[in-house]
Amino acid sequence: MFLKTFPVGPIQCNCSIIACEETLEAIVVDPGGDAQKIIDEINKNGFNLKYILHTHAHFDHVLGAKALKDQYAAKICLNKEDEWLYNNLDLQCSLFGFKADPVAPIDIYLKDEEIIKIGNLNTKTIHTPGHTPGSMCFCVEDKQSLVFSGDTLFDGGIGRTDLWGGSYESIIKSIKNRLLILDNDTLVIPGHGSNTDIWSEKKSNPFLN
Asked: What is the 3-state secondary structure (H, E, C) of 17-45?
């Protein structure tokens, strides 16, 4: 499996590219801006981008999606409960002092425990409401399990719940019931900041103890 994560966009969202190294089919998780930077990385490796997965629809996680879809005809994927946020990107950006790029239609409405397949890699969807109603995490099984946790779980922290549709009770329930049950050595790639693992968050995350 190919994996590369790098910060993009106005709030430095962690964007990840995962690809099957045999078929060169790829997924981008959370293209939050700097679309050309993402495109350059995809082209450098000769990948065929199939899916654009959004952990949620806050502007800093979706700003590059249309450019990627236009370039590769990849399918934009989002949980339907966040569609209202996605369709109000202009308002979101204006409240934070940023200008919104145009959005492209959602192609696939993600549901809980679906499998997104590229080549020999399977990515499982996990619905984790709390940061937003439609927040999703994406778990990939390879030599080491990893989960893209979006803004649900961070290294020593959790996502904000004071924004549109947020719920502190829901995010804690989502983390404890859906993420902390993963293998202890599962790598956690959050929406912002440094990576962590499930065991470290069980042991020392102050919001979960």
From this structure: EEECCCCCEEEEECCCCCHHHHHHHHHHH
